[in-house]
Amino acid sequence: MLVYLTSAPETRPATVCMERQAVRRAREAFLSGRTRPVEFRLQQLHALQRMITEKETEISTALKQDINRSQYDTPLLELIGIENEIKLAISKLSEWAAPRSVERNLFTLKDEVYVQPEPLGVVLIIGAWNYPWAVTLQPLIGAIAAGNAAVVKPSELSECSSLLLRALLPRYLDKDLYPVVTGGVSETQDLLRLRFDHIFYTGNSTVAKQVMEAAARHLTPLTLELGGKSPCYIDKDCDIRVACRRVTWGKFVNCGQTCIAPDYILCEPCIQGRVVECIRQTLLEFYGADPKCSPDYGRIINQRHFIRILGLMEGYTPVIGGQSDASQRYIAPTVLKDVPPHSRLMQEEIFGPLLPIVTVSDMDDAIRFVNEREKPLALYIFSKDKKAAKRMIEETTSGGVTVNDVLMHYTLSSLPFGGVGQSGMGRYHGKHTFDQLSHHRACLIRSLGMESLNLSRYPPQDRQRARRVKRVLRSSLIDMSKRTFIWAVTATVIGFGLFITLLVILLIAAGLNCTCWYWRGIYNYYW
Ligand code: NAD
Fold first, then answer.
1. Are 294 and 386 in contact (CB under 8 A)?
2. Hey, which residues does 441 pair with through a beta bridge?
3. Can you give the pTM of this predicted structure?
4. Which residues form the active site (predicted)?
């Protein structure tokens, strides 16, 4: 049997042993084969669905304590999305897990050819703190659906959520297959020393590099859901009031701590003043005159991030906001205009409630600006000219893109969610999670008959035979794609039709000939 755990020193701290035990139990449970039947996976998904429904209030309370998230926002921003993903997985699982038939070629025409999605084994899910339930449970849904075991490691920064998850999950799901390991950096690093079959990491790109290094030691495939600076271009011809309303919501929800929040605005100088005014009006409407007193406005996760975000503002005079209160880790919704493209604010992901505006001369300049920087996780374009928006999509790249809104592409399970380049690798949501956490096994089932068809590939070869085989292999008939197949059938039918027509013509001609000879005979006889 394969040894899945790396060798360890004789004496190890108790927590390390606990992690090793959790992983070992998950591995053993996986190897028992109980995740293989689709019925088992469905039952676990139903249990997870029950957990979300029954524990909504506890989850919302935990998030209130972690980041002062409004109790109304948690269902809207996290829980409904999770529930919908579970519902989708339950309704589609038999279809997703079924063998997928694929095209055959001339040599496999009589064989069974299909792709069988199968479980990978034990998946490690490492989550971030900003949406601690979504970033751990959404991959978990896919892991369960695909028949894997999964070790869940939530972020230590969202501590209340993390502890609640550890308490709840074993009450609803199989205890051995889906353990929750809590702890911080050292616990995560201990886990990363062990061998997994897939690592699903959500967090920042600096830690992602360490995760990737650890995965490389075991050749473990991984998904990296990272962040970065997601640009938002506002065209001067669009309805600026509506655009700013949508941008203000997407930027300041969860206090700016959203991986796909618009990081900065790009617009022409002629509309900058109007953009600022529209955002100011919207903020007043959303959070009142003092956002600190608004139950809908969040807080920064911890002191470290609080100081980091304030540091980004240094040297600027905000046109909106700028106030802060360290005792509550409160930073007001803040807008900064005419921000130089190479300032510190424009170097790192803000991940907080600061919204810089950088001016560009036109859409082409905006495209250049985006393309000169790392590939973002999301790109937002506000324009009433659909053609121009499509051109901007074509001439840039990003993990995802939404035109005339923000964040909304995340809500569609049919769209793959993930980054590109520095913003991440791999994708998930809906069937994409199932596929990401499955092995797509190539299956070909042949019979032992029709051996004569195989003779040409066996030795000894000679030049003439090799040439003949090459010709056949290069012929378009070899790949029996639907189009080739239809062509072949049509050509055969036409050929056969022509042959029959020719035969009939010949027969008629022969018949006429006979008739001629017959009448000529009669004529000769009587005359
Ligand atoms: P974090 O600090 O909670 O770290 C994430 C996880 O990594 C935690 O479980 C933590 O224990 C672990 N970790 C931290 N340092 C480690 C180390 N040195 N070695 C091993 N493990 C370590 O979260 P974060 O990184 O601050 O998260 C914010 C980032 O995540 C932002 O960049 C954001 O854009 C990104 N994010 C991306 C998505 C997405 O879906 N693409 C979603 C949420 C957040």
1. no
2. 116
3. 0.90
4. 225, 259
